[in-house]
Amino acid sequence: MIIVRGILQLIPLLVLGTFAYLWHHEVALGKESLSWPTTKARVNEASYGGRRDRLSYSFSVGETQFKGYKLEFCKVADKDLQEYFANNINNRKEITISYRPSDPSISVARPGIDDRQSTGYYILSAFAFVIAIAMERIYRIYFKKRKEESYI
Q1: From 26's CA, which of 3, 90, 106, 120 has a CA 20 to 30 Å away?
Q2: pLDDT higher than threshold 90 for residue 40
Q3: 80 and 137, same structural domain?
Q4: Stated pTM of the model
């Protein structure tokens, strides 16, 4: 029972840690992408509709072919992104993308990160932290109650 309790108390921290890592990784890649080299890519599929946007493109670096799907890092659906998509990607056969020189399989159509996006991720991180603490408290109360019931 103690092992189960310990594992359940770790779940909120694992969720929070995973979220924080993924958030930090996205933000770091977004900032790093501003200095990446660019190349032309062939658009395979492009449609924008808020949550249901799709972008698929193919490009080559040297002799190696790559596929990319990333419109931007820390994507937040907004009017600015919709206009960018309409003006720079929609109905085009070729676009300019940025790729990571050390790993060209990581690429993005719109490099950089908007300050509004990083602020949004800070807010989401704070929310995830509150949820993690609440879950941990709920587990404590639940197991304390179970322990008291086992003595009856």
Answers
A1: 90
A2: yes
A3: no
A4: 0.66
pLDDT per position as a tens digit, 119-132 = 666 777 777 778 77
Least confident of 39-48, 72-81, 97-106: 72-81
Q: What is the pLDDT of residue 27?
A: 82
Nearest C-alpha neighbor of 22 from the set 70, 68, 73? 73
Residues 46 and 97 in one domain: yes
Residues 69 and 100 in one domain: yes
Rounded distance between C-alpha atoms, residue 27 and residue 114, angstroms:
10
Which H helix or E strand runs over 17? Answer: helix 2-32
Statement to judge: residues 89 and 132 lie in one domain: no
Cβ atoms 34, 112 nearer than 8 A: yes
DSSP 90-139: TT-SEEEEEEETTEEEEEESS-S--HHHHHHHHHHHHHHHHHHHHHHHHH
Domain that holds residue 59: 37-110
Examine the domain organization and report whether 95 and 132 are in the same domain.
no
Check: CB of residue 10 under 8 Å from CB of residue 18.
no
What is the total count of domains within the chain? 2
55 and 75 Cβ atoms separated by less than 8 Å:
no
Q: Write out the H or E segment, with its range, that includes residue 50.
A: none
